[in-house]
User: Fold Aspartate 4-decarboxylase from Caballeronia udeis.
Amino acid sequence: MLDGKIYKGGFAGTIQDRGAQPVRTQGRTIKAAGGGVAERPANAAMLNAGRGNPNFLATIPRHGFWQLGLFAMRESERSFAHMPEGLGGFPKHQGLEERFEIFARDNKGVAGIDFLRGVLSYVRDQLGLDGGEFLYEMCEGILASNYPVPDRMLKLSEVIVAQYLKKEMIGKHPFVGDFDIFATEGGTAAMTYIFNTMRENHLITPSR
Assistant:
C-alpha cells in the first residue's frame, strides 16, 4: 500500500501523476518497501507481498497456532499423567472437543483463542466435519507425534483446503468432481516433485 493505494509487489507499470506525464512506479514502490521501519519510515506506509518475502505477517493465526500447541501439550501430558514429568502420550479422542471448550473458556481473552474457536465452528458448523476428529488431527500434527496419514495431506485438512480452492478458483461456476491435493512446502517444491515423478515414470527424458 502506497499513499492509500494498493500496488502489486514489483509492479513496473505506469500511473498518471496529477495530470503530468505517466511515471514509472517500480522504483517508487521498491524504495518505499526497502529497509526496516526504523531505517525507512516510508516502510510503514506500504505492505509489500514481494515474491514470497513480504515485509509483514499475519499475527492472528500465529497466536492461534501457539494456543493450539499449548492445548495439544496439555492433552499429551494428560494421557500420560501416570508417567514421570517430561513424558507425554498421544491425545485421547474421547471428550477432546469438550476439553477444548473448557480450555478456550479458561483462556478467554487470550490472543488466538477466539481465532481457534472460529476455526472449530467453521469446520463443524459450515463444513459438517466432526469437531473432535478435526481437533485430534490438528493436535497430532502440531505435536508431530505420528506419521501423516495419508502422507500426501492430512484427511480433514484436505477437505478444508479443497473447499477453499473451490471458492477461490471456481466460485459459483458448475463443478463436477473433487480435488486430490498433495501439499508441498511451496511452489518450487511442487514443480520439483512433478518433474521428478514424470521422469521416474518415463514420461519425460533429460534434455540433450
Residues 150-208 form one domain. The chain is about 45% helix and 5% strand. The chain has three domains: 1-56, 57-146, 150-208.
